[in-house]
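SECTION: protein entry
WANTED: fold as tokens:
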Amino acid sequence: MADRPSSPTRLAIARMFGKTGIRISAAVLAVFAAVALYAPFLSSEVALVWWDERGLRLPVFSDLFNRRSYVQYYDFLFNLVALMLPLLAVGWFSFRRRWSTGRRLSWSMALIAVAFVACLVPVIPTTGGGHHAIWSYRPTVAETIVAKRERVMSADQRLFAVFPVIPHRHDATYRGAVLAKPGDVNETSGSRFVLGSDSSGHDVCARMIFGSRISLTIGLVATGLSLLIGTIIGALSGYLGGATDLILQRIVEIMMCFPTFILVLTIVAMTDRDIFIIMMVLGLTGWAGVARLVRGEFLSQAVRDYVLAAEAIGMPRWRIMFRHILPNALTPLIITATFGIAGAVTTESGLAFLGLGDPNAPSWGSLLNQGRENIDYTWLIYAPGMAVFLLVTCL
């Protein structure tokens, strides 16, 4: 007989996934997450497999940690998680009976954090006597689609290479490929543009693939920050009550008086249009609703028998709040998190559509903005528009 979910976290997740619509949405979101994680294996000029007179090589793996190819920290984090995910899955499955879901999740996050920091520490010796980190600036990988084409044109038959489905970089500007139609041939690589190109000569499909990283990163980071702030303020307000509740709720009401999108527009317009600033702004302005929800849950749970029993035995207040009450308030928080991620994705796309996003980021909103400026080139509208619609709808 199967064990029933015991912890509040597992109970909330089991209740949520008991609905067919939730399972379908989860499957679509899993596809988005897989595309974001394994984007370099789906869209890149670097070969997955390269076999010539020098032997068999896997150039894509060395390129994952080349800072010339992946400049942003979030790109490096996605690449690292993509490599660690099989090992984490094995560990998750191996300890499923001995460790709770929360403990396995905590250990997984800790391992990723340790690996991330370790890859930034310069410990690998160089020929000049110094040291460099695993993620560092190195010469560009030579095993590319352009190199293969040159060798094929020179009648060199001693080569076997396998490339990603989209053999183009998302940030490369290709000659003679401005607003190319879907199916047109790229003169540089000899491959076709699956979804055409934009007004700068970028492959739209490649930018769509790497744009999923932007949307998921902003959604998760901004929502995580707002959940953290809102949960702490709501817990203190709902459990402590009195003057603490009065002061904190006035702060919450002040935050709720400001139109969030207008506030975000103002802050982004006054600062650098960097993706990390956008994440912080969205996270620091979206916690008021979470705080009100958590406060209500804590007010409801604070009069339950298990809380009164914990207070009677002298348990510290912080432990009662975050060890006992908070797990029983997870169900509405999970729902709030999904709406928060959807809102963050929509806001970021809206900022990019208005020209206030990060100009160097392959955002879906920036593609929509180009589609607005070039209304006859419909592939600049339908592809990113459908991606935003599907992601937000499934959330």
